[in-house]
Amino acid sequence: MQIALDGNMEISAPSSTTMSFLSNTRDVAACIPDSEGFTDIDGKKFTMKVRVGLGLVRGVFDMKGAIVDRQGNHIAYELNGRGIGSTAKITLALDVTEKAPGVTSAAWSSTFDLSGLISGVGAGIIKKVSDSKIEEIIINLKAHIESSTKQPNPTERPASSAPANAAGTQNTGQPK
User: Fold this and answer.
1) Angle, nearest 10°, between helix axes 15-22 and 123-149?
2) What angle do CA 40, 97, 94 make, to 5 degrees?
C-alpha cells in the first residue's frame, strides 16, 4: 500500500539556516514523533526506533535512514524499517526557496510504502494517521528551525536578574 502526501510550509528563517538544519540528521530525527534511540552512523546515515499505532496494530519499527540526495536547496531522506510483522519505506523530499530576507518557503513531498500486517489496517485509518504524523513532523521542523534563529531581546531582563527588594529577595513582578 502506498500513500503520497505533499505540502508547503513557510519558515521564519533564512534558507541557509533551514538547509543547515535539514542537513543534520540528528536535528531532523528529533522532529519525528514517537522516535527514540537515534544513532548517527556517518552524518548522512542513521538508525532509530519509531513507535507505531494504527488501530489495533501497535509496536516498534527499527528504522534505517539516510540523506539520499542533497543538491543546492534540495534534500531528500529515505527511511526503511521492519517491525510488528511489517515493512515500511518512507521518503521525504524538501525544496527550499528564500521568499524574502529571513523568510523561507519549503515545498515537501512524502511517500509511505507499507506491507505486511500493517497494510491490513484500513486504508482510511492509515491515511489519517500518516497525514497526522507528517503534519506533526512538519510543525516540529518549522518550530525547531525558527527557534534556532531567535535572538534574545536585549531590553528584556530574565527574572533571575530582577533587582532585589529590601528583604533581599528578587522582585519578579508577580503578585503573591
Assistant:
1) 120
2) 40
